[in-house]
TrEMBL record:
Residues 190-216 are annotated as: Disordered. The keyword Oxidoreductase does not apply. The keyword Acyltransferase does not apply. One of its GO terms (molecular function) is DNA-binding transcription factor activity. Keywords: DNA-binding. One of its GO terms (cellular component) is cytosol. This is Transcriptional regulator, XRE family with cupin sensor. Residues 9-63 form the HTH cro/C1-type domain.
Amino acid sequence: MSFDVGARLKALRALYGLSQRELAKRAGVTNSTISLIEQNRVSPSVASLKKVLDGMPISLAEFFTMDLGSENKTFYGVHEFADFSFGDTVKFRMVGGSYRDRKLHMMQETYMPGGDTGGTMLSYDGEEAGVVVSGAIELTVGDERRVLTAGEGYYFSTRMPHRFRNLGEEPCVLVSASTTTTFQKGQAATVQPMEAAAEAPPEDPPHMQMQGDRTP
């Protein structure tokens, strides 16, 4: 199912009683950025969308899964993961997306060739560890950079600026666990101003359009 990012952002902005100008000021972006996102004329990166949502504040998980049931379950079938995608190149699948008061985020992450968490380095409280299941991923943490392949892993403090991107020709799948506040309400990631792409004209290519799937 296609996820209407623009309509969701507009509805949440109205729920919080914020004008486009007010939200833009809180998030540190331009009014036109909010307008273009709400019209689905641009596709924000992971970092950029997080920056806008922090202006409310609301978490990425809540943004994509707020209409899921609130029952805390023990087991989750393949169709019960919370799915959210950024364009056609980055997809996250979260175990227990609606779990209340979570302390851990368990994710299956898929990066297609060219997939990138964004030109802006992310930084926020917590720790993250992961293992590459297939393919290869370039991970930058602070001044360190390494390409990890299947069977290799990582562990770092998410206070360190970091970025994931797939520079290869094959998809990369990794499984990660984090105690980060990235997906928690009210906790702001430290990011730089929104990429210039947010001001791109409406003729953006189809692959840049942001899609998301939700499964109850």
